[in-house]
């Protein structure tokens, strides 16, 4: 066992050291025939218009659209551009190209993807765009596209993402530089489409756009003459807080929402509840929030964290325990327990051993292997012990999706083909990809800043002044979440809301409990509105809300983003008067998920259901379970929920967003190489501690 792990650590060390020397790709825009000379102005509209036939879209009636690369005007980086594809509102031909007019009140929408490093074309082609790619490679119209309600522009950003371009040294160093780039892009965009300068802009996005958008808004507010007329901001499943807040803190809530993750096992639930408490994740939410800001979260490291330094796990849904075993078994092929079939045959016995291990450990101690990384421990448990996730996949973006592999909806062949590339005026210096590992500061260095290598402070740290500035400008915010999302679960968003002040009060004054409904009268989730902030929770939607609930997402856009539906608005927090009323069954800490988990290979081949008796027993257990936790003091002076920097914990954020990720990057990364080699000694002397990996 020691020999195998020594070889494994050597392999991971080599990967880590190689990553320290990688150079980000160099790319530049392409000048297609007809490109005007001189500065950007309305004459460029004809050039950007998508006029050539689009492959695989023959016979599909689409509104006019415009696409191409627009520079960000960063000094010394002339090839840094952002790629956009904008569609006019359905039935409103010419809406993007009308001359500027102060009385033009037609709304327009920006959509930003997350990542960091994910393309907005991913959202266009699979979520809320007018055309969608299917798993067989064909394309269809999306009747629920957001451009049915307003001109909508999907964008690849920051520079270097998707079809956006950057030289090898031009990738953003931090989110402030991203915001500066975006402002310059906006200035150039409205030079081409002058009406966009005065029309109301609705800035929307999801996931890591929850980090991008607050920084963009901050930079818009800093302009003496903003290039656009910002009206409202909508952020879905957003990365608004620290990694500890949005990923690990909500784990118990995730299990309560979908107890099938742990097979409805009460002992396993009690274990995760204990870890949740020991890690300080059981924050006490009150309405309104009292006692000041929440204390800093101490994200204690376990032994496995050192192994994970060698690679990126953002887009994988498989277990690390299985991934490491499979990777090594391919090379060694000497240990039958690592082989998939044998491993799953042992699943039942291993689950019992896992429970014996946790029950035999002294109460009140954090797991030595996982530490406070209880999110991955939850995921690993499901993939190794719970059907149907034990087939190999756990989709953190949509819990009920246990297909493995998942259906591949790839826009790449369409976008990278010669016809599609030419029609969209896309660069020829690179191929489009849906997502990549973004190199902040033009280096691949995740030892700086957060888990993505982003040195910027998380937005919750400045949401209080940001909301104050927005209120002065009559600009409101919408935060929305999908109930089936585990990646950025709604509990994390609710903690963020209760941890900053808006309208003179910290957090909401009442717990969200007002139902909202789709156009067919079906319950769609929860809505709550106070003092310029709307919070919406979607039933049956994952991380990519418009993908899983397209009709409901369009109603949401119409009513709560573009519209001013008052459902869920607190009229009087003392008397409890709320427009639409409040439903006590919706006022819990979690909203139960669905009863079915679907599975299959690249398609849905079956669904897994739970016996009604099992569900009844669980509901009885969870209704009487006592959390038995100590209320965490909220008198700390911290301005945000973030991981502490004590020796036993992971540094989640830096205190400033102005530093460059370049400083000392290579030397720090090379030091990590030596740290990895040092782990060989740990493996040699602590085989028992890591034995649970298998």
UniProtKB/TrEMBL annotation:
Segment forming the signal sequence: 1-20
Q: What is its EC number?
A: 3.4.16.-
Give me any GO biological process, just one: proteolysis
Q: Which UniProt keywords apply?
A: Carboxypeptidase, Glycoprotein, Hydrolase, Protease, Signal
MF terms in GO: serine-type carboxypeptidase activity
Cross-referenced Pfam families: Peptidase_S10
Similarity-based family: Belongs to the peptidase S10 family.
Q: What is this protein called?
A: Carboxypeptidase
Q: Upper lineage ranks?
A: Eukaryota, Fungi, Dikarya, Basidiomycota, Agaricomycotina
